[in-house]
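seq as requested:
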Amino acid sequence: MEEKTGTIVLSDENGIETEFEIITRLVIEDTNKEYVVVIPVDEDEDVDPIALRIEETEEGDFLFLPIEDDEEFEMVSEAFDLANIDEE
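struct tokens:
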């Protein structure tokens, strides 16, 4: 598991751009898939982190996709929780 922080700007389905802070980057070795956990930069209130799966297109671009499968979400959530425990 490797961490990488910074910010990314993502567009929603309406073309509205939002800047997100990357809290952590996770590689789930069992699946060999990559994920980022992000929060919106401009939020004043406490917000729940958002987990996104990273997929690379044939052209070499990266897509940040929402996790819609409950099992996949649980797996990423557990990995995120373990990464936070290791940091403490």
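Helices lie at 70-87.
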